[in-house]
């Protein structure tokens, strides 16, 4: 009876192993079909990805259009310095025209003939339909003060848009680095999971043989199956993460979302790190957020000056040529030269309120600039602390990899001498790949921290 139960368990075990193999083959076929339908492959390096993102990313394009729009706005503000040539023409019809009444005898009398005119005469002046046209050249004088302030505001708007473009470019470049590094790490982790599955499958088969020979308990077989299923779960999770990261990277690069990216794993890890003091000084000068805050202060100051200039009367010099046809008592062509002065004698305190409003806005902008400087200083110090930590993690990961490689070498020698089984050898190889993935992850985290420092310093290509 015990032998029958033993044989029955062997049969169940073999069926279970065969079922697992079939499921693994089906999963592999499905993954292959999904990969084939996911779109065209594209090999790309990290630098190519950065260049592609900076040139094709929609957020960058939007920021570029804003810079171009603000530049045109600045051109329009500069045109207010020049004289304006303006024409005003009219074609009108009136139902009544002016008439001059000449009474009898207004021009005297002729003896023997009577009065001149002998009766009342009405002289019509002008026409019912008449035209007028005037061309005037105007040059603002005192308004040039406000024009100058308006040009300062326009120049500040250009500076703000350029700082925003720079910030967007650095953010996009940093996102490319982050996604690129994450994809490389997950791909290596997936490779380790594949080796772990191979090792687990071999362990299931080996444990099955030992169980049949009566040298191993059923619990060891179950443990091997659990390890195999766990590795497959890790593999499926890695595939899902790779798919998500691939889609996100395509979106940042401006590529079709179904493009399958083949990343170049050769990432240059050599870079220089400035001193903490130099980095802080550079950030306070070149950081896009600080630059944007500085331009906002300049804009607020120019707006404050423009508000104060509202108290100055508007003085405009002009020269005008006029033409009319049909207007009574006015010659057809005549010229006018002079100065036009305009000033609001009473406005209910509107100008005073505007000056106070602009003064408060200037104070707000100055406080925002100081806040941006403080935040940049905190970020620089935080990043340098993080650089020290991630650098230490890289060294630990290197030592861990060296230990795993030595263990794999010893296991390989033991396998050649028949001391250990193939599953143990493959398990040690999987541990090496896992250690390599951890080292890659630590190294890329260290480099990503350096990239974050570059972003704070305002570099578009970390």
What proportion of the residues form beta strands (DSSP E)? 5-15%
- Contiguous uncertain segments of 5+ residues: 1-11, 27-38
Q: Strand tally, please?
A: 10
CATH overall fold name of the largest domain = Outer membrane efflux proteins (OEP)
Description:
With 462 residues, the chain is α+β, with helices and mostly antiparallel strands. The chain folds into two domains: 346 residues, Outer membrane efflux proteins (OEP) (Up-down Bundle); 30 residues, no CATH class. 67% of the residues lie in helices and 14% in strands. The protein is built from nine helices and ten strands. The strands form four sheets. Strands 2-7-9-10 form a four-stranded antiparallel β-sheet, with no helix packed on it. A two-stranded parallel sheet has the order 1-8. β4 and β5 form a beta hairpin. The longest helix is centred in the middle third of the chain and has 70 residues. The chain is elongated. The N terminus is likely disordered.
Helix-strand layout with pairing:
Elements: H1 2-37, E1 41-44, H2 46-56, H3 58-78, E2 84-93, E3 98-102, E4 109-110, E5 114-115, E6 121-125, E7 129-140, H4 144-213, H5 218-253, E8 260-263, H6 276-286, H7 288-308, E9 314-325, E10 333-342, H8 350-416, H9 422-457
Parallel strand pairs: 1-8
Antiparallel strand pairs: 2-7, 3-6, 4-5, 7-9, 9-10
Features:
14% strand; 2 domains; alpha+beta; 462 residues; elongated; 4-stranded antiparallel beta sheet
């Amino acid at each position: 009876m015990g032998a029958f139960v033993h044989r029955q368990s062997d049969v169940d075990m073999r069926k279970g192993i065969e079922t697992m193999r079939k499921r693994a083959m089906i999963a592999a076929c499905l993954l292959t079909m999904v990969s084939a339908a996911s779109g065209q492959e594209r090999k790309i390096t990290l630098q190519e990805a950065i260049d592609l993102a900076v040139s094709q990313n929609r957020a960058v394009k939007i920021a570029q259009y804003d810079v171009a729009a603000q530049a045109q706005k600045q051109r329009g503000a500069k045109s207010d310095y020049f004289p304006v040539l303006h024409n005003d023409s009219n074609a009108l019809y009136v139902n009544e025209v002016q008439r001059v009444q000449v009474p009898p005898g207004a021009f005297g009398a002729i003896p023997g003939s009577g009065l001149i005119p002998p009766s009342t005469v009405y002289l019509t002046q002008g026409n019912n339909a008449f035209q007028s046209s005037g061309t005037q050249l105007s040059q603002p004088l005192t308004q040039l003060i406000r024009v100058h302030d308006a040009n300062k505001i326009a120049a500040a708007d250009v500076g703000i848009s350029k700082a925003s473009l720079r910030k967007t470019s650095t953010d996009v470049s940093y996102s490319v680095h982050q996604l690129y590094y994450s994809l490389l790490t997950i791909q290596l982790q997936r490779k380790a999971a594949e080796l772990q599955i191979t090792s687990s499958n071999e362990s299931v088969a080996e444990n099955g043989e030992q169980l049949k020979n009566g040298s191993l308990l059923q619990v060891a077989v179950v443990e091997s199956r659990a390890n195999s299923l766990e590795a497959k779960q890790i593999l499926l999770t890695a595939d899902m993460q790779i798919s998500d990261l691939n889609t996100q990277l395509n979106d940042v690069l401006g590529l079709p979302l179904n493009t399958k990216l083949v990343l170049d794993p050769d990432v240059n890890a050599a870079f220089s790190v400035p001193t903490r003091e130099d980095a802080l000084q550079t950030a306070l000068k070149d950081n896009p957020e600080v630059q944007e805050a500085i331009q906002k202060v300049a804009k607020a100051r120019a707006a404050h000056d423009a508000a104060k200039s509202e108290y100055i009367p508007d003085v405009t010099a002009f020269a005008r040529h006029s033409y009319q046809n049909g207007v009574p008592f006015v010659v057809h062509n005549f010229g006018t030269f002079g100065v036009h002065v305009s000033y609001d004698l009473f406005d209910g305190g509107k100008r005073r309120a505007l000056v106070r409003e602009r003064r408060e806005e200037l104070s707000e902008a100055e406080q925002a600039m100081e806040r941006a400087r403080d935040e940049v200083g905190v970020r620089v110090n935080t990043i340098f602390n993080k650089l020290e930590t991630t650098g230490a993690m890289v060294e630990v990961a290197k030592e861990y990899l060296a230990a795993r490689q030595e263990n794999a070498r010893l296991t390989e020698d033991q396998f050649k001498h028949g001391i250990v089984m193939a599953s143990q050898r493959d398990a040690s190889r999987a541990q090496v790949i896992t250690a390599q993935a951890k080292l890659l992850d630590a190294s890329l985290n260290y480099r990503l921290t350096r990239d974050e420092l570059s972003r704070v310093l305002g570099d578009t290509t970390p």
